[in-house]
Model the fold of this input.
Amino acid sequence: MADAYDVVVIGAGPGGYVAAIRAAQLGFTTACIDDWTRDGGKPAPGGTCTNVGCIPSKALLQSSENYEHAGHGFAAHGIDVKGLSIDVARMLARKDKVVAQNNDGILYLFKKNKVAFHHGRGSFAGKEGDRWRVKVDGANPAELTAAHVIVATGSAPRALPGIPFDNDRILDNAGALAIREVPKRLGVVGAGVIGLEMGSVWRRLGSEVIVLEALPAFLGAADEAVAKEAQKAFAKQGLAIHTGAKITSVKPTKKDVTVAWTDAAGASQTSVFDRLIVSIGRVPHTKGLDAEAVGLKLDERGFVAVDHDCRTNLPNVWAIGDVVRGPMLAHKAEDEGVAVAERIAGQKPHIDFDTIPWVIYTSPEIAWVGRTEQQLKAANIAIRTGSFPFTANGRARAIGEPTGFVKIIADAKTDKVLGMHAIGPMVSELIAEGVMAMEFGASSEDIARICHAHPTLSEATREAALAVDKRTLNL
Ligand SMILES: Cc1cc2nc3c(=O)[nH]c(=O)nc-3n(C[C@H](O)[C@H](O)[C@H](O)COP(=O)(O)OP(=O)(O)OC[C@H]3O[C@@H](n4cnc5c(N)ncnc54)[C@H](O)[C@@H]3O)c2cc1C
Done:
Protein backbone atom coordinates (compact mmCIF):
# COMPACT_ATOMS: atom_id res chain seq x y z
CA MET A 1 0.00 0.00 0.00
CA ALA A 2 1.35 3.40 -0.94
CA ASP A 3 1.66 6.09 1.75
CA ALA A 4 -0.78 8.90 0.91
CA TYR A 5 0.16 12.58 1.35
CA ASP A 6 -1.34 15.92 0.47
CA VAL A 7 2.06 17.19 -0.73
CA VAL A 8 5.20 15.33 -1.84
CA VAL A 9 8.32 17.40 -2.46
CA ILE A 10 11.14 15.93 -4.57
CA GLY A 11 14.45 17.48 -3.50
CA ALA A 12 15.45 18.90 -0.10
CA GLY A 13 17.60 21.84 -1.18
CA PRO A 14 16.64 25.31 0.11
CA GLY A 15 13.65 25.29 -2.25
CA GLY A 16 12.35 21.83 -1.40
CA TYR A 17 12.93 21.66 2.34
CA VAL A 18 11.41 25.10 2.92
CA ALA A 19 8.41 24.21 0.71
CA ALA A 20 7.89 21.02 2.76
CA ILE A 21 8.05 22.89 6.08
CA ARG A 22 5.64 25.60 4.90
CA ALA A 23 3.21 22.97 3.51
CA ALA A 24 3.28 21.13 6.86
CA GLN A 25 2.75 24.42 8.74
CA LEU A 26 -0.35 24.99 6.62
CA GLY A 27 -1.77 21.66 7.79
CA PHE A 28 -0.93 19.44 4.82
CA THR A 29 0.40 15.92 5.32
CA THR A 30 3.79 16.28 3.66
CA ALA A 31 6.71 14.11 2.57
CA CYS A 32 10.08 15.24 1.22
CA ILE A 33 12.43 12.99 -0.77
CA ASP A 34 16.15 13.70 -1.22
CA ASP A 35 19.00 11.55 -2.46
CA TRP A 36 22.08 13.47 -1.20
CA THR A 37 24.26 11.14 0.89
CA ARG A 38 27.14 11.93 3.23
CA ASP A 39 29.90 9.68 4.54
CA GLY A 40 28.55 6.51 6.11
CA GLY A 41 25.47 6.53 3.83
CA LYS A 42 23.63 9.00 6.03
CA PRO A 43 21.19 11.47 4.41
CA ALA A 44 22.44 15.01 3.80
CA PRO A 45 19.40 17.19 3.13
CA GLY A 46 20.03 20.80 2.16
CA GLY A 47 20.95 20.26 -1.49
CA THR A 48 23.70 22.06 -3.37
CA CYS A 49 23.41 25.06 -1.06
CA THR A 50 24.17 23.17 2.15
CA ASN A 51 26.50 20.48 0.83
CA VAL A 52 28.59 22.05 -1.93
CA GLY A 53 27.40 25.63 -2.32
CA CYS A 54 26.45 28.58 -0.11
CA ILE A 55 27.35 27.13 3.27
CA PRO A 56 30.71 25.39 2.68
CA SER A 57 31.93 28.25 0.46
CA LYS A 58 31.21 30.75 3.22
CA ALA A 59 32.96 28.49 5.76
CA LEU A 60 36.12 28.45 3.60
CA LEU A 61 35.85 32.17 2.83
CA GLN A 62 35.84 32.83 6.58
CA SER A 63 38.79 30.50 7.26
CA SER A 64 40.85 32.02 4.47
CA GLU A 65 39.93 35.56 5.52
CA ASN A 66 41.03 34.81 9.09
CA TYR A 67 44.33 33.54 7.69
CA GLU A 68 44.79 36.64 5.57
CA HIS A 69 43.99 38.94 8.48
CA ALA A 70 46.43 37.11 10.73
CA GLY A 71 49.12 37.32 8.04
CA HIS A 72 48.55 40.84 6.77
CA GLY A 73 45.93 42.70 8.79
CA PHE A 74 46.80 42.10 12.43
CA ALA A 75 50.18 43.91 12.37
CA ALA A 76 48.51 47.32 12.02
CA HIS A 77 46.64 46.60 15.28
CA GLY A 78 49.93 45.91 17.03
CA ILE A 79 49.39 42.17 16.96
CA ASP A 80 52.42 40.29 15.69
CA VAL A 81 51.91 36.74 14.53
CA LYS A 82 54.91 34.47 14.23
CA GLY A 83 55.03 31.08 12.53
CA LEU A 84 51.67 31.47 10.79
CA SER A 85 50.64 28.34 8.91
CA ILE A 86 47.52 26.81 7.43
CA ASP A 87 46.42 23.23 8.10
CA VAL A 88 44.16 22.62 5.09
CA ALA A 89 42.91 19.27 6.43
CA ARG A 90 41.69 20.95 9.63
CA MET A 91 40.12 23.80 7.67
CA LEU A 92 38.22 21.29 5.49
CA ALA A 93 37.18 19.26 8.55
CA ARG A 94 35.70 22.43 10.10
CA LYS A 95 33.85 23.15 6.87
CA ASP A 96 32.49 19.57 6.83
CA LYS A 97 31.33 20.00 10.42
CA VAL A 98 29.48 23.22 9.55
CA VAL A 99 27.80 21.39 6.64
CA ALA A 100 26.83 18.43 8.86
CA GLN A 101 25.33 20.80 11.45
CA ASN A 102 23.13 22.22 8.71
CA ASN A 103 22.15 18.74 7.42
CA ASP A 104 21.17 17.72 10.95
CA GLY A 105 19.34 21.00 11.47
CA ILE A 106 17.10 20.25 8.47
CA LEU A 107 16.40 16.68 9.70
CA TYR A 108 15.42 18.22 13.06
CA LEU A 109 13.13 20.75 11.34
CA PHE A 110 11.43 17.94 9.40
CA LYS A 111 10.75 16.09 12.66
CA LYS A 112 9.54 19.23 14.42
CA ASN A 113 7.13 20.03 11.58
CA LYS A 114 6.07 16.40 11.02
CA VAL A 115 7.44 16.23 7.48
CA ALA A 116 8.07 12.58 6.51
CA PHE A 117 11.59 12.41 5.10
CA HIS A 118 12.54 9.72 2.56
CA HIS A 119 16.20 9.27 1.73
CA GLY A 120 16.52 8.16 -1.89
CA ARG A 121 15.70 9.08 -5.45
CA GLY A 122 12.17 10.19 -6.18
CA SER A 123 10.56 9.66 -9.58
CA PHE A 124 7.14 9.96 -11.15
CA ALA A 125 5.42 6.58 -11.45
CA GLY A 126 2.14 7.68 -13.03
CA LYS A 127 -1.30 8.58 -11.72
CA GLU A 128 -3.98 6.96 -9.60
CA GLY A 129 -7.18 8.86 -10.33
CA ASP A 130 -6.40 12.49 -9.45
CA ARG A 131 -3.39 11.56 -7.36
CA TRP A 132 0.23 11.33 -8.45
CA ARG A 133 2.25 8.20 -7.71
CA VAL A 134 5.86 8.85 -6.70
CA LYS A 135 8.43 6.10 -6.27
CA VAL A 136 11.37 6.29 -3.87
CA ASP A 137 14.48 4.25 -4.77
CA GLY A 138 17.09 3.86 -2.06
CA ALA A 139 17.93 1.84 1.02
CA ASN A 140 14.25 1.98 2.06
CA PRO A 141 12.22 1.92 -1.15
CA ALA A 142 8.69 3.30 -0.93
CA GLU A 143 5.63 4.13 -2.99
CA LEU A 144 3.89 7.40 -2.19
CA THR A 145 0.80 9.07 -3.57
CA ALA A 146 0.16 12.82 -3.46
CA ALA A 147 -2.49 15.34 -4.35
CA HIS A 148 0.31 17.81 -5.15
CA VAL A 149 3.93 17.26 -6.18
CA ILE A 150 6.59 19.98 -5.93
CA VAL A 151 9.67 19.36 -8.06
CA ALA A 152 12.74 20.97 -6.45
CA THR A 153 15.56 18.94 -7.97
CA GLY A 154 18.00 21.85 -8.38
CA SER A 155 20.95 22.17 -10.71
CA ALA A 156 24.31 20.64 -11.60
CA PRO A 157 27.60 22.26 -12.67
CA ARG A 158 28.10 22.99 -16.37
CA ALA A 159 31.28 21.50 -17.86
CA LEU A 160 33.32 23.05 -20.67
CA PRO A 161 32.19 21.40 -23.92
CA GLY A 162 34.03 18.07 -24.32
CA ILE A 163 36.02 18.54 -21.10
CA PRO A 164 34.43 16.54 -18.29
CA PHE A 165 35.12 17.21 -14.60
CA ASP A 166 37.50 14.66 -13.05
CA ASN A 167 37.58 16.45 -9.67
CA ASP A 168 41.29 15.79 -9.58
CA ARG A 169 42.75 18.39 -11.96
CA ILE A 170 39.51 19.77 -13.44
CA LEU A 171 37.21 20.72 -10.61
CA ASP A 172 33.54 21.56 -10.30
CA ASN A 173 32.19 23.38 -7.24
CA ALA A 174 32.33 20.22 -5.10
CA GLY A 175 35.98 19.66 -6.07
CA ALA A 176 36.85 23.34 -5.54
CA LEU A 177 35.60 23.07 -1.96
CA ALA A 178 37.68 20.00 -1.20
CA ILE A 179 41.21 20.71 -2.53
CA ARG A 180 43.50 18.90 -0.08
CA GLU A 181 46.54 21.20 -0.35
CA VAL A 182 47.00 24.82 -1.42
CA PRO A 183 47.66 24.68 -5.18
CA LYS A 184 50.66 26.71 -6.26
CA ARG A 185 49.00 27.74 -9.51
CA LEU A 186 45.21 27.77 -9.68
CA GLY A 187 43.18 28.46 -12.81
CA VAL A 188 39.55 29.53 -12.64
CA VAL A 189 37.36 29.54 -15.73
CA GLY A 190 34.49 31.99 -15.25
CA ALA A 191 34.54 35.22 -13.24
CA GLY A 192 31.02 34.82 -11.87
CA VAL A 193 30.03 34.56 -8.22
CA ILE A 194 31.40 31.04 -7.69
CA GLY A 195 34.66 31.65 -9.59
CA LEU A 196 35.41 34.87 -7.70
CA GLU A 197 34.58 33.35 -4.31
CA MET A 198 36.60 30.18 -4.87
CA GLY A 199 39.47 32.11 -6.47
CA SER A 200 39.52 34.39 -3.39
CA VAL A 201 39.67 31.47 -0.94
CA TRP A 202 42.73 29.87 -2.52
CA ARG A 203 44.45 33.18 -3.33
CA ARG A 204 44.27 34.17 0.34
CA LEU A 205 45.84 30.84 1.26
CA GLY A 206 48.76 31.46 -1.09
CA SER A 207 47.79 30.24 -4.58
CA GLU A 208 48.72 32.24 -7.62
CA VAL A 209 45.27 32.60 -9.21
CA ILE A 210 44.41 33.38 -12.82
CA VAL A 211 40.74 33.87 -13.70
CA LEU A 212 39.72 33.49 -17.35
CA GLU A 213 36.40 35.07 -18.30
CA ALA A 214 34.94 34.75 -21.79
CA LEU A 215 32.76 37.87 -21.65
CA PRO A 216 34.39 41.19 -22.58
CA ALA A 217 33.16 43.02 -19.46
CA PHE A 218 34.01 42.16 -15.86
CA LEU A 219 30.89 41.55 -13.69
CA GLY A 220 28.59 42.63 -16.49
CA ALA A 221 25.48 42.12 -14.35
CA ALA A 222 26.62 44.60 -11.69
CA ASP A 223 26.42 48.40 -11.77
CA GLU A 224 29.43 49.65 -13.75
CA ALA A 225 30.78 51.72 -10.83
CA VAL A 226 30.69 48.62 -8.59
CA ALA A 227 32.32 46.41 -11.22
CA LYS A 228 35.10 48.97 -11.71
CA GLU A 229 35.78 49.26 -7.98
CA ALA A 230 35.76 45.45 -7.64
CA GLN A 231 38.22 44.98 -10.50
CA LYS A 232 40.56 47.51 -8.91
CA ALA A 233 40.33 45.83 -5.49
CA PHE A 234 40.86 42.30 -6.84
CA ALA A 235 43.83 43.40 -8.98
CA LYS A 236 45.41 44.96 -5.87
CA GLN A 237 44.96 41.63 -4.06
CA GLY A 238 46.78 39.84 -6.87
CA LEU A 239 43.79 38.07 -8.43
CA ALA A 240 44.65 38.16 -12.14
CA ILE A 241 41.41 38.44 -14.11
CA HIS A 242 41.46 38.23 -17.91
CA THR A 243 38.21 39.17 -19.63
CA GLY A 244 37.52 38.31 -23.28
CA ALA A 245 39.48 35.05 -22.82
CA LYS A 246 38.50 32.15 -25.08
CA ILE A 247 39.59 28.67 -24.02
CA THR A 248 40.88 26.64 -26.95
CA SER A 249 42.03 23.47 -25.18
CA VAL A 250 42.36 21.94 -21.73
CA LYS A 251 44.81 19.07 -21.27
CA PRO A 252 45.02 17.42 -17.86
CA THR A 253 47.89 15.12 -16.87
CA LYS A 254 48.59 13.31 -13.61
CA LYS A 255 50.39 16.34 -12.17
CA ASP A 256 48.96 19.46 -13.83
CA VAL A 257 46.59 20.86 -16.42
CA THR A 258 47.55 22.94 -19.44
CA VAL A 259 45.06 25.50 -20.73
CA ALA A 260 45.46 27.10 -24.14
CA TRP A 261 43.47 30.30 -24.55
CA THR A 262 43.23 33.43 -26.65
CA ASP A 263 43.29 36.77 -24.89
CA ALA A 264 41.09 39.79 -25.61
CA ALA A 265 43.60 41.05 -28.20
CA GLY A 266 43.47 37.70 -30.03
CA ALA A 267 46.94 36.54 -28.95
CA SER A 268 47.45 32.84 -28.11
CA GLN A 269 48.33 32.12 -24.49
CA THR A 270 49.22 28.97 -22.58
CA SER A 271 48.87 28.58 -18.81
CA VAL A 272 49.86 25.60 -16.72
CA PHE A 273 47.93 25.08 -13.47
CA ASP A 274 48.05 22.57 -10.65
CA ARG A 275 44.25 22.64 -10.53
CA LEU A 276 41.58 24.21 -12.71
CA ILE A 277 38.17 25.24 -11.34
CA VAL A 278 35.49 25.44 -14.01
CA SER A 279 32.66 27.71 -12.90
CA ILE A 280 30.82 28.68 -16.06
CA GLY A 281 27.28 28.31 -14.79
CA ARG A 282 24.90 25.56 -13.86
CA VAL A 283 22.35 23.45 -15.69
CA PRO A 284 18.92 22.32 -14.46
CA HIS A 285 18.88 18.85 -12.92
CA THR A 286 15.97 16.63 -13.97
CA LYS A 287 17.83 13.34 -14.44
CA GLY A 288 16.24 10.43 -12.62
CA LEU A 289 12.89 12.14 -12.21
CA ASP A 290 11.21 10.20 -15.07
CA ALA A 291 9.66 13.48 -16.16
CA GLU A 292 9.09 12.06 -19.66
CA ALA A 293 7.00 9.17 -18.28
CA VAL A 294 4.29 11.59 -17.18
CA GLY A 295 4.80 14.24 -19.87
CA LEU A 296 6.29 16.95 -17.63
CA LYS A 297 7.27 19.70 -20.04
CA LEU A 298 10.84 21.00 -20.10
CA ASP A 299 11.82 24.15 -21.98
CA GLU A 300 14.44 24.28 -24.74
CA ARG A 301 17.24 24.75 -22.16
CA GLY A 302 16.14 21.76 -20.05
CA PHE A 303 14.44 23.73 -17.23
CA VAL A 304 11.05 22.50 -16.04
CA ALA A 305 8.68 24.86 -17.84
CA VAL A 306 6.59 26.89 -15.37
CA ASP A 307 4.36 29.93 -15.37
CA HIS A 308 4.91 32.95 -13.12
CA ASP A 309 3.38 31.03 -10.20
CA CYS A 310 5.56 27.90 -10.63
CA ARG A 311 2.76 25.78 -12.17
CA THR A 312 3.99 23.16 -14.65
CA ASN A 313 1.97 21.82 -17.60
CA LEU A 314 0.64 18.98 -15.36
CA PRO A 315 -2.25 19.51 -12.94
CA ASN A 316 -1.08 19.96 -9.32
CA VAL A 317 2.57 19.51 -10.25
CA TRP A 318 4.69 22.52 -9.34
CA ALA A 319 8.41 23.26 -9.79
CA ILE A 320 10.67 25.72 -7.94
CA GLY A 321 14.28 26.84 -7.48
CA ASP A 322 17.25 26.21 -9.74
CA VAL A 323 15.33 23.69 -11.88
CA VAL A 324 13.09 26.50 -13.21
CA ARG A 325 13.71 29.90 -14.88
CA GLY A 326 15.04 32.85 -12.92
CA PRO A 327 18.14 33.51 -10.86
CA MET A 328 19.90 30.46 -9.40
CA LEU A 329 19.91 31.70 -5.82
CA ALA A 330 19.02 29.89 -2.61
CA HIS A 331 16.74 32.67 -1.33
CA LYS A 332 14.83 32.73 -4.64
CA ALA A 333 14.32 28.96 -4.33
CA GLU A 334 13.12 29.34 -0.72
CA ASP A 335 10.67 32.10 -1.55
CA GLU A 336 9.23 30.08 -4.42
CA GLY A 337 8.87 27.08 -2.04
CA VAL A 338 6.90 29.14 0.48
CA ALA A 339 4.78 30.72 -2.26
CA VAL A 340 3.85 27.36 -3.84
CA ALA A 341 2.84 25.83 -0.49
CA GLU A 342 0.66 28.88 0.14
CA ARG A 343 -0.88 28.70 -3.35
CA ILE A 344 -1.78 25.05 -2.71
CA ALA A 345 -3.55 26.33 0.43
CA GLY A 346 -5.51 28.80 -1.70
CA GLN A 347 -3.54 31.87 -0.63
CA LYS A 348 -2.28 34.52 -3.05
CA PRO A 349 1.41 35.10 -2.28
CA HIS A 350 3.51 37.30 -4.51
CA ILE A 351 7.21 37.23 -5.38
CA ASP A 352 8.77 40.36 -6.83
CA PHE A 353 11.72 39.25 -8.95
CA ASP A 354 12.89 42.88 -9.10
CA THR A 355 13.67 42.92 -5.37
CA ILE A 356 15.71 39.73 -5.13
CA PRO A 357 19.12 40.71 -3.73
CA TRP A 358 22.41 39.52 -5.28
CA VAL A 359 25.53 39.03 -3.18
CA ILE A 360 29.14 38.09 -3.93
CA TYR A 361 30.99 37.17 -0.73
CA THR A 362 34.45 38.32 -1.79
CA SER A 363 36.43 40.88 0.17
CA PRO A 364 35.22 43.56 -0.35
CA GLU A 365 31.74 42.08 -0.57
CA ILE A 366 29.47 43.06 -3.45
CA ALA A 367 25.68 43.33 -3.19
CA TRP A 368 22.85 44.85 -5.13
CA VAL A 369 19.12 44.98 -5.55
CA GLY A 370 17.10 46.52 -8.34
CA ARG A 371 18.27 47.84 -11.66
CA THR A 372 21.68 49.34 -12.38
CA GLU A 373 22.26 52.94 -13.47
CA GLN A 374 23.05 51.66 -16.97
CA GLN A 375 19.86 49.57 -17.21
CA LEU A 376 17.69 52.47 -16.03
CA LYS A 377 19.32 54.90 -18.46
CA ALA A 378 18.87 52.41 -21.30
CA ALA A 379 15.18 52.23 -20.37
CA ASN A 380 14.97 56.06 -20.54
CA ILE A 381 14.04 56.39 -16.89
CA ALA A 382 15.13 59.69 -15.39
CA ILE A 383 17.09 59.03 -12.20
CA ARG A 384 19.09 60.71 -9.46
CA THR A 385 21.95 58.83 -7.83
CA GLY A 386 23.84 59.26 -4.59
CA SER A 387 27.03 57.50 -3.45
CA PHE A 388 28.90 57.47 -0.19
CA PRO A 389 32.39 55.97 0.20
CA PHE A 390 33.37 53.79 3.17
CA THR A 391 36.55 55.89 3.50
CA ALA A 392 34.28 58.53 5.07
CA ASN A 393 32.49 56.05 7.38
CA GLY A 394 33.86 55.92 10.94
CA ARG A 395 33.04 52.26 11.56
CA ALA A 396 34.67 51.15 8.28
CA ARG A 397 37.84 53.04 9.25
CA ALA A 398 37.78 51.53 12.74
CA ILE A 399 37.55 47.98 11.42
CA GLY A 400 40.16 48.76 8.79
CA GLU A 401 37.97 48.11 5.74
CA PRO A 402 37.45 51.45 4.01
CA THR A 403 37.24 50.13 0.42
CA GLY A 404 34.06 50.65 -1.57
CA PHE A 405 30.82 52.60 -1.36
CA VAL A 406 27.06 52.46 -1.21
CA LYS A 407 25.07 53.86 -4.13
CA ILE A 408 21.35 54.59 -4.10
CA ILE A 409 19.41 55.18 -7.30
CA ALA A 410 16.06 56.97 -7.11
CA ASP A 411 13.45 58.01 -9.64
CA ALA A 412 14.12 61.66 -10.57
CA LYS A 413 10.44 62.65 -10.35
CA THR A 414 9.04 60.58 -7.48
CA ASP A 415 12.28 59.89 -5.54
CA LYS A 416 11.19 56.20 -5.26
CA VAL A 417 14.22 53.94 -4.67
CA LEU A 418 14.91 51.92 -7.83
CA GLY A 419 18.19 50.29 -6.83
CA MET A 420 20.93 49.96 -4.25
CA HIS A 421 24.42 48.91 -5.31
CA ALA A 422 27.21 48.41 -2.83
CA ILE A 423 30.75 47.17 -2.53
CA GLY A 424 32.53 47.10 0.81
CA PRO A 425 32.51 45.56 4.28
CA MET A 426 29.42 43.49 5.19
CA VAL A 427 27.34 44.87 2.34
CA SER A 428 25.75 41.39 2.22
CA GLU A 429 23.96 42.50 5.40
CA LEU A 430 23.45 46.16 4.42
CA ILE A 431 21.57 45.22 1.24
CA ALA A 432 18.54 44.11 3.30
CA GLU A 433 17.78 47.79 3.92
CA GLY A 434 17.63 48.44 0.16
CA VAL A 435 15.39 45.40 -0.36
CA MET A 436 13.08 46.58 2.42
CA ALA A 437 12.98 50.12 1.00
CA MET A 438 12.08 48.84 -2.46
CA GLU A 439 9.45 46.39 -1.15
CA PHE A 440 7.75 49.22 0.75
CA GLY A 441 8.05 51.62 -2.18
CA ALA A 442 10.21 53.96 -0.07
CA SER A 443 11.82 57.13 -1.36
CA SER A 444 15.50 57.96 -0.91
CA GLU A 445 14.29 60.69 1.47
CA ASP A 446 12.63 58.00 3.63
CA ILE A 447 16.01 56.25 4.08
CA ALA A 448 17.71 59.61 4.71
CA ARG A 449 15.22 60.49 7.46
CA ILE A 450 15.52 57.15 9.34
CA CYS A 451 17.77 57.20 12.42
CA HIS A 452 20.75 54.85 11.89
CA ALA A 453 22.93 53.80 14.84
CA HIS A 454 26.39 55.37 15.09
CA PRO A 455 29.01 54.21 14.37
CA THR A 456 27.73 51.59 11.93
CA LEU A 457 28.36 50.66 8.34
CA SER A 458 24.65 51.23 7.72
CA GLU A 459 25.25 54.96 8.08
CA ALA A 460 26.86 54.75 4.63
CA THR A 461 23.45 53.72 3.25
CA ARG A 462 21.79 56.72 4.89
CA GLU A 463 24.52 59.03 3.61
CA ALA A 464 24.13 57.61 0.08
CA ALA A 465 20.41 58.38 0.34
CA LEU A 466 21.27 61.93 1.49
CA ALA A 467 23.68 62.18 -1.44
CA VAL A 468 20.76 61.65 -3.86
CA ASP A 469 19.61 65.09 -2.69
CA LYS A 470 23.21 66.39 -2.64
CA ARG A 471 23.23 66.87 1.15
CA THR A 472 25.63 64.35 2.68
CA LEU A 473 26.67 65.31 6.18
CA ASN A 474 30.01 63.52 6.44
CA LEU A 475 31.56 64.12 3.06
C1 LIG B 1 29.78 27.04 -4.86
C2 LIG B 1 28.40 27.62 -4.81
C3 LIG B 1 28.14 28.68 -3.97
C4 LIG B 1 26.86 29.22 -3.90
N1 LIG B 1 26.66 30.26 -3.06
C5 LIG B 1 25.42 30.80 -2.99
C6 LIG B 1 25.17 31.89 -2.09
O1 LIG B 1 26.05 32.33 -1.37
N2 LIG B 1 23.91 32.39 -2.04
C7 LIG B 1 22.89 31.90 -2.83
O2 LIG B 1 21.77 32.41 -2.76
N3 LIG B 1 23.11 30.88 -3.68
C8 LIG B 1 24.33 30.32 -3.77
N4 LIG B 1 24.54 29.26 -4.61
C9 LIG B 1 23.39 28.76 -5.40
C10 LIG B 1 22.48 27.86 -4.54
O3 LIG B 1 23.24 26.80 -4.03
C11 LIG B 1 21.31 27.32 -5.36
O4 LIG B 1 20.64 28.40 -5.97
C12 LIG B 1 20.34 26.55 -4.48
O5 LIG B 1 20.96 25.46 -3.87
C13 LIG B 1 19.14 26.05 -5.30
O6 LIG B 1 18.27 25.38 -4.44
P1 LIG B 1 17.29 24.23 -4.98
O7 LIG B 1 16.48 23.82 -3.78
O8 LIG B 1 16.56 24.68 -6.17
O9 LIG B 1 18.22 23.04 -5.48
P2 LIG B 1 19.45 22.27 -4.83
O10 LIG B 1 20.04 22.99 -3.70
O11 LIG B 1 20.34 21.90 -5.97
O12 LIG B 1 18.80 20.96 -4.22
C14 LIG B 1 18.22 19.97 -5.01
C15 LIG B 1 18.23 18.68 -4.21
O13 LIG B 1 17.42 17.71 -4.88
C16 LIG B 1 18.09 16.48 -4.90
N5 LIG B 1 17.55 15.69 -6.02
C17 LIG B 1 17.68 15.93 -7.35
N6 LIG B 1 16.97 15.02 -8.07
C18 LIG B 1 16.38 14.20 -7.16
C19 LIG B 1 15.53 13.08 -7.24
N7 LIG B 1 15.09 12.63 -8.43
N8 LIG B 1 15.15 12.46 -6.11
C20 LIG B 1 15.56 12.90 -4.89
N9 LIG B 1 16.37 13.97 -4.74
C21 LIG B 1 16.76 14.62 -5.86
C22 LIG B 1 19.55 16.87 -5.04
O14 LIG B 1 20.41 15.81 -4.68
C23 LIG B 1 19.61 18.04 -4.07
O15 LIG B 1 19.80 17.59 -2.77
C24 LIG B 1 25.80 28.68 -4.69
C25 LIG B 1 26.05 27.60 -5.52
C26 LIG B 1 27.32 27.06 -5.58
C27 LIG B 1 27.55 25.88 -6.48
Notes: The chain is about 30% helix and 25% strand. The two ends are 72 Å apart (CA to CA).
